[in-house]
Amino acid sequence: MTQTSSRPGTATSAPAVSSRRWWTLSTVALAQLMVVLDSTVVNIALPSAQADLGFSNGERQWIVTAYSLAFGSLLLLGGRLSDLIGRKRTFIIGLIGFALASALGGAAGTFGLLVFARALQGAFGAMLAPTALAVLTTTFTIPKERARAFGVFGAIAGAGGAIGLLLGGVLTENFNWRWNLYINVFIAVIAVIGAIVFVSHQERQGPRPKLDVPGTILVSGALFSLVYGFSNAETDGWGSPLTWGFLAGAGVLLVAFVLWQRRAEHALLPLSIVLDRNRGAAYASVLIAGAGMFGVFLFVTYYLQTSLHYTPIRTGLSFLPMIGMLILAAQLSTNIFVPRFGPKIMVPFGMVLAAIGMSYLTRLGLDSTYAHDVLPALMVLGFGMGSIMPASIQTATLGVDRGHAGVASAMVNTSQQVGGSIGTALLNTLAATAATDYLASNLPPTATTMAEAAVHSYATAYWWGAGFFAFGAIMAALLFRRRGRGAGTATPTPAEPVAAH
Length: 501
Prior knowledge:
Growth Hormone, Chain: A, single chain, disordered N terminus, 2 domains
């Protein structure tokens, strides 16, 4: 914050950074919760929205994907804008825009307008989320307090999706599916008031950064093509030229983006940020966790509602134990395990637990019960996610040059949202293919075989999710440095550069 001394060696001033820093954390946490839960809050509302607006099963994923796609593809731009026009201003603009887009989506009378509103939510969320994390990194400079703050932030990043399912159940059953969007207006109003009162304006240090327009176009186009290619595979199939055309185009654009960043004078994403071994491992871990978790939220929700015939609110309540385990693991990781073992141990440990939880879900059938078959898997998944997120997020923002705090923070959210987009699109595609193949081999179709086909398709998605996490465990174990080497330790020094912008 502005009260922090810019001279090295004056870390003793850290306690005076802001007497309202915990209120700042509350404001940032509220905004982050709104952004993350909106990735899943509409999942429970999807059956009701689908019946109301009349869109197909193949189209339903776009209600989720449009948000994640716009969010993930524009986050790097949002992070740079926070460096360009100021974090407090960007934060407030993002909150107001998010609220207006939510109101538009709540009032949508057509499928197209709802998808547009969700994409608009994602665009403003891309301004809001990296700014929230950048504010957090500059507010908390005392190592112990910073760890606690990141523990809260990591818990929200991991639990926000599950909280969204709970909130979605309550709103859908007691009000209407549209209130899953209208609720953001009330949350945003509270957060705007908190931002005005508690978030301090930060004076710029050094030259004003310039916007990398070619880099922004290249990376946004690449991320859009990547997710659209996976999404198109469900409707047109993997043999479609359009599917592979978009996927190939994404690869070309990503290569062009990297080449441009190597020579751009004002790079959108300085490659030193992601090429650091620990930070690169942290971003990859967040991406893999996002790919696995956003997919499981979608399929467990549909299983509970369509196979076990749960009401929306009962479905939401079913995720509460998972949230509790995630919060418990996040606090234990932040205060005990990460300082002692570091991310090289904690992230692979969490990945292994998540893979076990996903594998357990593959046992679900039409005669399964929540207490015996669903609950244990969700609790293991929650503890696994609570072990992955705090360690990854702390490591991802350590040791970054002060002029790149916004874009480094944006990479955390980019990784989570792009992972969620790819995971949702890919798992939905694989599940749909599995259901079709099951019905084709069990003719003629009956109500029982159709229900069994749905459960079979969910199991296919769970197996792939388990594979994601297993790969993540191996990757994290190989890439993270041992404690005490490089920037990846979990306890930063008070005068860490990222907190001085």
